[in-house]
Amino acid sequence: MFSTQHPEKVPFAKFHLEVIRQLLERYSSTEAKPLHFDQGNARLTERHFPELVPRKEGKKSATRRCKVCSQTKAGIKKRKESSYMCRECDVGLCVVPCFRIYHQVADF
Q1: What are the CB-based long-range contacts (under 8 Å, 24+) for 56-63?
Q2: How far apart are CA 48 and CA 2, in angstroms?
Q3: Is residue 86 one of the residues assigned to a domain?
Q4: Domain assignment of residue 4, yes or no
Q5: In the prediction, which pLDDT does 71 show?
Q6: Taking the model in full, what pTM does it have?
Q7: Residue pair 102/86 in contact by the 8 Å Cβ criterion
Q8: Rounded Cα distance, 7 and 10, in Å
Q9: The PiggyBac transposable element-derived protein 4 C-terminal zinc-finger domain covers which part of the protein (predicted)?
C-alpha cells in the first residue's frame, strides 16, 4: 500500500516514522481525559490526615480498631484500638506507623 503511493525506495526507519505519524494523526486525541481513581488509588495518591474518632453520645472515649494492626501478614490478627482515624477512608488507624503504612502500601 505504501509502495503504491511512494514508488521510490524509502529507508525502513523513514517508513516506520511515517506510519507512526499517520497513526497518531488519525487516532490521537488532544482532549484531556479526566482521571478516575477508585478508593484504593485515591488512598495512595490523595492527601489524607489523621483525625480523632468522633465521640458518640454516652461514651467516655471513642476508638476504632486499627485496620493495619488487625491485618498482620503472619495471619495473626491482633485487636488494637486507636483514637485516630482517616475520615476520607473511614478506617481506624494508629497514628504511628499505621497511618503512613495504610496510605503508602497498595495491598491494604
Answers
A1: 63/92
A2: 55
A3: yes
A4: no
A5: 83
A6: 0.55
A7: yes
A8: 9
A9: 58-103
Closest CA to 93 of 61, 69, 59, 76: 69
Collapsing DSSP to helix, strand or coil, 69 comes out as coil
Angstrom distance (rounded) from CA 65 to CA 84? 9
Residue 67 one-letter amino acid: K
Measured CA to CA, the distance from residue 82 to residue 65 in angstroms comes to: 6
C-alpha cell at 83: 483514637
How many domains does the structure of the chain reveal? 1
Q: What is the C-alpha separation between 9 and 62, in angstroms, rounded?
A: 78
Once rounded to an integer, what is the mean pLDDT over residues 5-15? 81
Instruction: Tell me the residue length of the chain.
Output: 108
Question: Are 90 and 55 a contacting pair, CB within 8 Å?
Answer: no
Structural domain boundaries enclosing 64:
39-104
Q: Is 23 part of any domain?
A: no
